[in-house]
Amino acid sequence: MMTESPADSAKHPTGQPAEKHTSQELARVLALLDASRHSLAALSAAVDLASRRHAELVALYVEDLDLLRCTAFPFSREIGAQSGLARPLSTTSLEAAIARQRGRIHQALERAVAGRELHHRLEVSRGQVTVEALAAAGPADVLVLGKAGMSERFGPRLGSTSRRLLLEAPCTVLVWDERHAFRRGPLRYLEPAADTSQTNRLPEWLAALFDAAMPLPLHHAGELERLLARSEVGGLLLSCAELRQLLDEDPDMLARLPLPVVVVN
């Protein structure tokens, strides 16, 4: 049976009593991977979380069925990342590319857990990425995502997959930013929260990554971004309702924040 760490006996950052977990209640740390630098940064964070809590690490890789279906169109083309040359997109070449990516993810997972006594596995499925990821997650899990959709040319953007998972996942979601090294600090939250009961649902072992809570009397995307623009430590806690409101104001605000973001449903 898993024992509680000293951090688990502390109070929640919002001042609420710590949650008590049994081995049956504690589920897994899930990392959704696609071999991009964003997802690999998320994998590193997920490994640290799972090691800290002695939880199972599950790396999720979804072979994108929508992409495979594109090969049915005669006008489909793939463009070389280095050469810029366009060539026909075939099922054979795409299956080979998927197999190579799966191999890179497996290697990355083994490197990430090397030297750790950590129960881990790679779970591969085929379908729509969001549907498969949502089906894999349970209420007690923590899903770790990278800020996919980044582009140096067009600026930081939150990927559509990440946005949907943030708003629909049945569990706590941690969004990691590979551009900034994590430094321990306060866990900020909006006060008064739209539903203060939501802030009490953050697992204690995840809350233990941060120092005491810091309420922010802000509710608009622009002022929140300006306040946190130069923040270098800690993170931000949002409920799904708060996140939805902020994204309605500015769809890419979350991607520009330099801090990890924890979303509770």
Short key terms for the protein model shown above:
single chain, 265 residues, alpha/beta, Rossmann fold, two-stranded antiparallel ribbon, 33% helix, globular, disordered N terminus
Report a brief summary of the structure:
Helix content is 33%, strand content 22%. It has 265 residues and is of the alpha/beta class.
Explain what you see.
- This protein is an alpha/beta fold and 265 residues long.
- The chain has a single domain, classed as Rossmann fold (3-Layer(aba) Sandwich).
- Helix content is 33%, strand content 22%.
- The chain contains 9 helices and 11 strands.
- The chain has a 9-stranded mixed beta sheet with strand order 5-2-1-6-7-11-10-8-9, sandwiched between helices.
- α1 (37-53) runs parallel beside α3 (91-113) and α4 (129-136) runs parallel beside α5 (160-168).
- The longest helix is centred in the middle third of the chain and has 23 residues, at 91-113.
- The chain is globular and about 55 Å long.
- The model is unreliable at 1-25 and 149-155 (pLDDT under 50).
